[in-house]
Here is the input.
Amino acid sequence: MTQQTIKKNNIRVELYDWIRIIATLFVVIGHSVYLKIVVAHGGVDYQLPMNISPTYYGKILSFIREGHWILVYFHMPLFFFLSGAVLGLKPIKNLLYFIKSKIKRLIIPFFTAGFFFMLPVKFLGNFYSFNGMIHAAFTFWHGGLESDDGHLWFLAALFWCLVIFGILIKSLKKIHIENPFIPFIICFIIATLASKYSITDFMEINNGLKFIHWVAAGYVFENYRHFYKFSYIRSVIICIVFVCFHLWNRKVHFYNHYFLVIFGIIFSIALANVLSPLFKYLDANFHNGYQNFINKLFAIYLFHDPLEYLVLRIFFNRNLLSSSLGCYAYLFMRTIGVILISLLISNILDFILVQLKSRFRKTIV
Here is the structure.
């Protein structure tokens, strides 16, 4: 099954939309099982109650917890990889405009979602005390280990990845080097050095350097994607092999970092192809809703994680895990529930922005 490239105002590839959906679901699942997280100025450490329902250890909830430990190895490199692939769709014409667009797309949401949503919601979720939240707000830009920027670290790290990689691509093209493997090799060296020697944690620069080779890998993939036919049968086989490997790996415990990440990315691409009939069906029969969901994937990433702490506070403070219904409701809220609430928040914000813009135009007139 070959992938169709859709051209509108800009270049768009269906495959990358499908991978974005899968990657977003992966990151939500990855954030749906933890009970303990400690950062510089806050954290949670929930203990399972003595009267917890056996349903908590049943097949469905255990499957999600098991999946978390598999996804955690590659779900963030997958986002960097996908960003590099999308970057390869069209050349960077104006570097200054490119940097400004990434500030608008990544840095502004990093601060606005952090200060006006993540920190207050985590405070409501008992992650921060009031003083802890204030201290976290003042050190939000610092980054690094035990950072208070939470899941939003990715936005700042990706910003540095894209800016540095963009400058590298433009510099290499000036000396007529356009082979995508050259910047990949350079970025791999940068990532290796960044893993050994920390430059600065300011706004996740060091984390950005650690992941820059995955951006470069995605860029390489896009440059050679059109040479490869995405066979449906081959994709199914890859997914089966991936599942069988991890079932086997539960006993063997093979944890080579690069192997697990590369295998996870290959699996994600194959899974996107396997699920392509479903995505195409949704697009054909529920086009507006499907496209709106794709457009809201970024909002899901921004809002879902802080909501997890509200779910934890409600379910643990009210001892709701003592019943089977409570356990299933807990699973629903930590996965589908936080997605639905994130979509609701995004739609409310869109409505407010439309109203404000309308009033602003009337004021001018």
Notes: Strands lie at 5-7, 11-13, 36-38, 43-45. The first strand starts at residue 5 and ends at 7. The mean pLDDT is 93. Residues 89-229 form one domain.
